[in-house]
Design goal:
The protein is an alpha/beta fold. It is built from 8 helices and 12 strands.
């Protein structure tokens, strides 16, 4: 049983720690997205590119991909993801929002780098989602899940920015979920097919509200703040999935 681990060149450089973990726990080799041969032999693929077409091409060959292309496609289009959640009864902060202030997000953006606070009215720009801000700016929650099971939750807070991303300097600490919050997370989990994801929530009037799905979710916060080896757990899950076919 051997597989390939796919990262873009840029993300491979940034995620050397995670790559070392994957190659330690699995019979797997790193292949850069820019050098990928879709005809190469593999029993399974771990797609860390956020590109659903990469997963789709391997799936068409009958190869098991973690995460599936359907999840990658949904998670990496904020507009589609918000519409999907809203259609299925999951509360979101209103989108296509023309009020001021508003949050402007690149549809395919990640890591908070293409998220802006808009304080003056502007025409809607293609490729962006305009969303009503949550009441508790600079505070959000990330929850990690493997195969539908909640593994951990981390609260992120910023003292100087409306974005709370850890990679942007946000302060983070473990968070104990209430039963109501667990129920909401499980409701979202039941709607989608996935292997390993993060779900991010904002806080509005004291409760969590769905914000986005992280497909190739990072784990820096977990390794910094807990004793959990989540990549090891994910690799154990992958081994079982591939063996049981």
């Amino acid at each position: 049983m051997s597989g390939i681990l796919v990262y873009s060149r840029k993300e491979a450089e940034r995620n050397a720690f995670s790559i070392e973990k994957y190659t330690k726990y699995l019979d797997i080799k790193l292949v850069l997205q820019e050098e990928l041969d879709f005809s190469c032999p593999a029993d399974f693929v771990i797609n860390r590119t956020n590109d659903y077409k990469t997963a789709e091409k391997f799936e068409q060959r009958g190869i098991r991909v973690f995460n599936p292309s359907s999840l990658t496609r949904l998670a990496n289009d904020k507009q589609k993801c918000y519409e999907f959640m809203q259609k299925n009864g999951i509360e979101i902060m209103p989108v296509n929002y023309s009020g001021i202030p508003s949050i402007k997000k690149a549809v395919c953006g990640k890591g908070g780098t293409e998220v802006f606070m808009i304080k003056e009215k502007e025409p809607f720009e293609k490729g962006y989602v305009y969303q009503k801000p949550a009441s508790d700016l600079g505070k959000d929650l990330r929850v990690w899940l493997i195969n539908g099971e909640i593994k951990a939750a981390i609260l992120r807070e910023s003292q100087s920015d409306f974005r709370a991303n850890f990679c942007l300097g946000g302060i983070a600490k473990p968070y104990i979920l209430s039963q109501e919050e667990k129920n909401l997370i499980c409701n979202i989990s039941d709607l989608i097919k996935f292997d390993y994801i993060g779900i991010d929530f904002v806080f509005n009037s004291g409760k969590i509200v769905f914000n986005e799905i992280e497909d190739s979710v990072g784990a820096r916060m977990l390794y910094s703040l807990t004793d959990m080896d989540i990549i090891k757990e994910y690799c154990s899950y992958i081994t079982c999935e591939v063996k049981n076919g």
